[in-house]
Amino acid sequence: ADILYDKDAFGAIEVEKRKEYVNVVSSYLKEGGILLLAGQFRKSDLESGPPFHLTKDVVEEFWIANGFEFVDEKGEEMRAQYNQQELFEDVTYLLRKKKCE
Fold first, then answer.
1. Extended strands (E) in the chain
2. What pTM was computed for the model?
3. Which residues contact 101 (CB under 8 A, 6 or more apart)?
4. φ, ψ for residue 42 (rounded to 5)?
5. What is the pLDDT of residues 10-22, one digit of tens each?
6. Quick check: helix, strand or coil at residue 65?
7. Which class for 33: exposed (0-12), middle (13-18), buried (19 or more C-beta within 10 A)?
8. How many angstroms separate the CA atoms of 67 and 49, rounded?
9. By three-state DSSP, how is residue 32 classified?
10. Beta bridge pairs of residue 74
């Protein structure tokens, strides 16, 4: 594939299974292909989920360390509809699968 979109799928996976997920996604994406990875950056209740808290460090640990590079990132603060006090941020990372050298 030239491009893949992941809206909270990676964020819904338990940490111990994420490496396997990255490998499967990577196998579907061609070299130079784009991954749009969207998730939640929580302002509180960081351990709850799914979807689990998604940070740039998590992206680096699982995606950048496994053959992807950052292209861009965006965050948008939102209020959870069910609780106006709990804030979270929708985050989106645009990643590119590196070409093999």
1. 3-7, 34-42, 68-79, 87-97
2. 0.82
3. none
4. -85, 145
5. 999 988 999 999 9
6. helix
7. middle
8. 27
9. coil
10. 92
Amino acid identity, residue 47? E
Burial code (b: 16+ CB inside 10 Å, e: under 16) for 49-86 equals bebbbbeeebbeebbbeebbeeeeeeeeeeeeeeeeee
* pLDDT tens digits for range 64-100: 999 999 999 886 555 555 555 556 778 899 999 998 8
In the numeric block, which tokens belong to residue 24? 């499967």
- Beta-carbon count within 10 A of 29 CB: 19
Q: For residue 28, give both structure tokens.
A: 């579907």
Q: How many CB atoms lie within 10 A of CB 17?
A: 9
Distance of alpha carbon 10 from alpha carbon 42, whole angstroms: 15
